[in-house]
Amino acid sequence: MTFTALRISVATVGMACALSSHAAGFTLTSPTVKPNSMLTEAQVFNGFGCSGKNVSPALKWSGAPKDTKSFAVTVYDPDAPTGSGWWHWVVFNIPATATELPEGVAADGKGLPAGATQGRTDFGAPGFGGACPPKGDKPHRYIFTVYALKTDKLDVPADGTAAMVGFNINANKLAAASFTAKYGWK
Question: What count of other Cβ atoms lies within 10 Å of the Cβ of residue 144?
Fold first, then answer.
């Protein structure tokens, strides 16, 4: 390894350490859903054979990196029997001044901070879509994530897929904070 290559390697490792320590205090919590808990009927979808209330939980975050220009929030079920999981909620272009989303954000966006957009979920429409695993499946995991982004606006059409939004989130991610909850039929 040449001296220049060694310097580049050391600089890369140093930058990675700085970024991870910079985001070390970034956290996501919810007064509605506790980590590793079972979701309640309030967060269960109303459709597809489920009869929940389909209410988005309140989410709060803190400790975002100082260079954050916007946030995005997703809820993802990696256990859905689709081969690609299931996106239950996609919210992006949340202003950097925001530190929470209230409980019960409407499908039309009422309750979101100004400028925020809800993307299309795997239910085929924007807005929160609650848990609804197939009957007989083991409890599914629902991963709630907030992303701190280095851009103030993702250039994604409002009807863009969750995969398209996810690609743009990951291309602009400074840090992420998550927790997981579960839901299964009783």
Answer: 22
